[in-house]
Structure formats: C-alpha cells, structure tokens
Amino acid sequence: METLLGKLNEGKTKQIFELVDEPGLVLVQSKDQITAGNAVRKDQMEGKAAIANKTTSCVFKLLQEAGINTAFKKLHSDTAFIAAHCEMIPIEWVCRRIATGSFLKRNPGVKEGFRFSPLKMEMFFKDDANNDPQWSEEQLLEAKFTLAGLSIGQCEVDVMNRSTVAIFEILEKAWATQNCTLVDMKIEFGVNVRTQEIVLADVIDNDSWRLWPAGDRSQQKDKQVYRDLKEVTPEAMQMVKRNFEWVSERVQLLLEPQASGRVVVLMGSTSDMAHCEKIRKACTSFGIPCILRVTSAHKGPDETLRIKAQYEGDGTPTVFVAVAGRSNGLGPVMSGNTAYPVINCPPITPDWGAQDVWSSLRMPSGLGCSTILSPEAAAQFAAQIFGLTNHVVWCKLRASMLNTWVSLKLADQKLQACTI
C-alpha cells in the first residue's frame, strides 16, 4: 500500500494526495459527494466515490488503449486511482454534439436538439467566485499561464483543442455501441510535472457529460437528473444513484470490441516475409489478428482457392492482403473469387518495379481489389474497413490521427524555436 505524503488539493468531489514512495505520482481519492450549481446544491450519496472511480478508470483505460496521452496510471482501490502529478490548466474544455443546457441560455433562438457538425467547442475559466465564466481563445492566450515550466501559448491551446475533439469522438463512438448518445462533455488538461507534456487529466465520470440512451433526453442517465430535482428526497437520491450505477456498469462494456475480424496475408514466396511482417506488426498495433500464408496463384491455383475457402468458411470477417512480386496473380485471382475485400501490397523492387506494379493496378472488369504499396498503409486500410463495425479499432485510428497531428505541430514549434 502506498504511503501518502500530504494533501495537495481538494475539490468538491475528490482529494489529491502526494505519494511518498513514488515521486511524480499522486493518489486521486473520490468522495461520496454530489454537487450542482457550483455546490449551491450539495448532498452525500453513499457509494458515489466507488461508482465515480470505476467510471473514470474505465474511461481512461479506453482512451489510453486507443492511444490518447492521459495522466491515469492504474486503479488503486475501489475509491481511488493513481495518476501522474500534473499542474492543472484552469480551463474546462466543453465539447458539444447536441445543443442543450447552458448553451441554449447563452444562444437564444437555438432550439434544443440542434446538432453540431463539426463539434462545438467552448472553454470556461475555472473560477468559482465568478461561476466559471466562458472564455475566448484570446483570453486564454492573454492569461499567459505557465504551469510546470510550460508556457501556454498558441501551440498548446491548439493541441488541447484538437485533443478535446478527438477524445469526444472516441467516447461518442464507444457509447454508440450501447445505443447511447454522448450529448456533450467537459474535460481538463494538466502539465505532467516530470515530462512537461500536456495530458488529459482530472477525471471523466458521470459528472462530466450528458448521456441520453437512444438519443432520448427523458431517459438521461447523467448528473443532469440531480440538477433537475425539484426537491432532494431519499427516494430521489436512490434514483440518481441507480442512474450512476447504470453508467458505471455500461462503461465497462465500452472496453469490449463489438465485432471480430482478421487480416490474412497471402505471400507468393517466403522471400516476401520481411514485407509481410511489417503488415502483421502494423495490424497488431490496431489490435487486429493477422495470419501469414504462402501460396502462389500461378503455380498452385487450386491450393490458393482452398486457403481462401478455409477463411471464408468460419464466418469471421476477413480482409485478404496479396503480397506477390513480379507478376501479381494472387490479388486478381483472390478478388475474382471472393466477396471479401482484397488489398494488393506488392513488394516493389528498384529494377522492374515500375513494370511489375501494373499487374496489381490494371484489373479485368468485375475485380475490385485495391493496391497499396506501403505495408503499414495496407494494414491501416484494413483497419479502416474493420473500424466501420469495430469501435475499438476505430478509436485507435482516431487517436493515431490526433497523435500524428500533435507530433507535427510540436516539431514545427521546435524548429521555429531553433530558427528564431
């Protein structure tokens, strides 16, 4: 059991403790308290700490497995988790898919249910005394915050903005598998005191979002039910608690893929093994099983079609990748004999590559195989096919997009700093 050094901070629903044995880490301890209206309404709800801790731990696990950079490290107990020590950026980032709540009051004339595509982003300065006023990007930049040695400038604001959208879209996609609409959500970022990286921090639990099963507001399961209570009675609090428990149970299901799938790579010769291993490695990074087989459509067409039938016959959704140098017979033969997707990924050589590639590009009529030269890109395209029905794969793709964008942004910032 970790030894607590001292309380670093205490909010309305949680306490933060420093850990003696693990410098750079903190313990986030939830409380059995529920509040609304900047704690104008405040009640004890027995078991809320455990419910909130379970919810936030599952959400952070889902995001981390997708590839989102968060402060969360591990579950500590029923009511606490361990996280990287961060200096918090005092902004609540709010992301909205559907207009409701305070947005309607601030934007008269907009009807509840208006759908934002793209998502609507707002930010609020965390200032209890002034009821967390809405801020513009310019106000945030002019505040010139410095946290854990990192100055919050345009680059950092852009990264948080982009990250908020990606995090919302990942959770929206995950909740859709449970026929729940993620209406809106608030999150916070911190600067990791050890790495000076901006990471998703604080908590994401049933206080953080609006969640409407089947898109129906009357079935809402989030803290809005508590906010809307005309009178706080023991019966009403039991109803609120049941809603919170419902969410904490459902959120565990978000970690499970709703559909299976695999990639079967057919290579014409074991000399293509290194090329095929790159495809397998990339598939594994998306959590997709990948099987390698050797068969030649020119030299053993009957065996190629037997292998095809083997994978068609067990009902598992499959994407075939054909890896054949020189004259590619594999891809076209497979494509002409299966309704499953086929991707050509020929290993192009410097000498005859320009000529060989035409056997993958120019197909007879009725064949729909695509051609992707990069083994990693072929795996990514297969992942995008599976992502249509498997939210876990889609979430990895979405986080990868974000991380690529952030790395380019930071590389540009670093280069500018060197040039100036």
TrEMBL record:
Pathway: Purine metabolism; IMP biosynthesis via de novo pathway; 5-amino-1-(5-phospho-D-ribosyl)imidazole-4-carboxamide from 5-amino-1-(5-phospho-D-ribosyl)imidazole-4-carboxylate: step 1/2; Purine metabolism; IMP biosynthesis via de novo pathway; 5-amino-1-(5-phospho-D-ribosyl)imidazole-4-carboxylate from 5-amino-1-(5-phospho-D-ribosyl)imidazole (carboxylase route): step 1/1. It comes from the Eukaryota. GO terms for cellular component: cytosol. Residues 261-408 form the PurE domain. One of its GO terms (molecular function) is phosphoribosylaminoimidazolesuccinocarboxamide synthase activity. Keywords: ATP-binding, Decarboxylase, Ligase, Lyase, Multifunctional enzyme, Nucleotide-binding, Purine biosynthesis. InterPro entries: PurE_classII (IPR033626), PurE_dom (IPR000031), SAICAR_synt/ADE2_N (IPR028923), SAICAR_synthetase (IPR050089), SAICAR_synthetase_CS (IPR018236). Pfam families: AIRC (PF00731), SAICAR_synt (PF01259). GO terms for biological process: 'de novo' IMP biosynthetic process. In the N-terminal section; belongs to the SAICAR synthetase family. In the C-terminal section; belongs to the AIR carboxylase family. Class II subfamily. Homooctamer. This is Multifunctional protein ADE2-like. It comes from Gouania willdenowi (Blunt-snouted clingfish).
